[in-house]
Design goal:
This is F-box domain-containing protein. The chain is an alpha+beta fold and about 425 residues long. It contains eight helices and 23 strands. The radius of gyration is 33 Å and the shape is globular.
Length: about 425
Amino acid sequence: MAPAWKSRGKKTKRKTKTPSSSTLVPSPSTVEPQAAAAETPSIDVLTEFVLEDILRRLSLADLLRAALASHRWRRLASRCLPRDPPLLGYFFHPAEVHVPFPERDPKIVETPAVFAPLDASSPRLSLDFAPDASRFFVYDAHQGLLLLEPSESVPKVVLPRFLVLDPATRRRTVLSPPPRDTVPDDRRWRSSRYYVGSALLSRTHPTKLCFEAVCFAIDGGHPRAWVASVDNGKCRWRALPRDEQVLVDFDPYWFEGRAVRAAGKIYWHICQSSRLLVLDPSTLRFSYLPAPGELFAHNRNPKYRIGETPDGRLCLVTDAEQQLQLWVRGKGDKGWILERKIVDLLVLCDKLRGLPVDPMFRTLCVWPSDMDAGRTGKVFIKTWGFGRFSFHMDTGKMELLSTKRGKEYGHPMFAYFLAWPPAFLAPDN
């Protein structure tokens, strides 16, 4: 070993390690994700105007899902929702197709109500969450609720109990009849009382069972309404005074128990009559609405049904003068104007199979049973033993309404709309 003094003055040459190319040039795998992240814009940079334009292009189901993303998206989605609640489908009681020209009216077989979705995107609703629903019959549908009355026969002097269902949230409640003390001196009127029908009035929350319903009877020749206010199962009844301005000078038996909702009011048809009974939900006052006088000029008992046009106007559809006609409100015949003659009944009959050859019998077998409450521009056509159909007034398309088990869609058909707006888009108060 060399002495320490010999190595003091020597300069030691250090070896410099040459860096590898991997340390001189950054790795592509390290840089590309960072560059990509920097180049990809965040959705937060989109303006509210752009987001609203995107949300408006979504289907209703996707729009409601998007509303759950954040508070900001909820606010934007609420602006893009349609004003009117969406139609999901129809509830009805399936009926057997009877043989043509029965010698007497066939017995109505009560079957549980079923749901027919509007299209493939609609939910498949059912009443299986309420087993007792099979003992009730649907009488009204409004704001996501169904009102049902007992199917068994009840004396008309007695107000029935009601079953109210929310198929979307699978909630139910039973309303007992109004107590007798809701009407002062009730015993005086019970001998002449005739119960007619019921309907839903309003709903205060899209998911809670908070709503109002009305039923009415004829007391001593004048209509009287009972109103039920329900708050999550707790029901409170109040009885209104008899409406002395409306006189029922005929047998109340001719009233149809099922109400028709159109243009903001509730109507009850009267068989073989030239007028309808009207209830204004805002004032709870009754009145009569006359049908066009021209309908009875050529036909003693024409068939007519009240409803709504797709743009929300009050209308009547009738088979007067051997034609399917559409009348709307206006300054005309008792406040009605013939808007158009849709189709001759013989032409309509040619679209159906199996009808008699004789022209008179052909037209007797076919009549309009209802306007589609879904405001689709369709009329429901009922036949005497040849099935039930829908007829589009603009396109002339005729569709057979039958179930997979061979039954026909029963009358009436209740258009079912989603409770609106959805709960998470409703105001907190």
